[in-house]
Design goal:
mainly alpha, 73% helix, Arp2/3 complex 21 kDa subunit ARPC3, membrane, 2 strands, 7 helices, BioY, transmembrane
């Protein structure tokens, strides 16, 4: 791996951690907080591509597992992974990788709509497909109850996907990461 690539992986790991500085919004009906960190997941996958985007979130996940307080609210450690939020957090490297893979297949013709569609599919739906069953298992509720409770995340996640999609195509061109 080139030094430039290591720097980008580290930078995007730090961006996701920095988004954790924003305090989580806790809700009384679901044990998973609303955070800004999924914006960083979408951004890493979109800008860095599959390999580097997935790797940046894998490094982030390893920091969480090691106990670094990089999650929103200063959380970290195995306890968080084995809690209700764990499925969402475990999905982040997968999501960043799949976003990157889909972006790489579309690179010459990127625009807001294509990037938004990719982020909705791989940055929201894929994360929910992993996170919602995890909540159900960890809290002993039905998947339907977990899905209904998780619906509160959808408006914010759509806004995050739109934010990333609004400037990522230009950032990809400027960083010249795709050869």
């Amino acid at each position: 791996m080139k030094t430039k690539e290591m720097m980008y992986v580290s930078l995007f790991t730090a961006i996701v951690a920095a988004l954790g500085i924003l305090p989580p919004v806790t809700l009384p009906f679901i044990p998973v907080p609303i955070t800004a960190q999924t914006l960083g997941v979408m951004l890493a996958g979109t800008v860095l591509g599959a390999r580097l985007g997935g790797l940046s979130l894998l490094v982030f996940l390893l920091l969480v597992i090691a106990g670094a307080p990089v999650l929103s609210g200063g959380r970290g450690g195995l306890g968080v992974i084995f809690g209700p939020s764990g499925g969402f957090i475990l999905s982040w490297p997968i999501s960043a990788f799949v976003i990157g893979l889909l972006i790489e297949k579309t690179v010459p013709h990127l625009n807001f709509i294509k990037v938004l569609g990719i982020n909705i599919i791989a940055g929201i739906l894929l994360v929910y497909l992993i996170g919602i069953p995890w909540i159900a298992v960890m809290t002993n509720i039905s998947i339907t109850q977990a899905a209904i409770g998780s619906a509160i995340f959808l408006p914010g996640d759509l806004i995050k996907a739109a934010i990333v999609s609004s400037f990522a195509p230009q950032l990809i061109k400027r960083l010249n990461l795709r050869k």
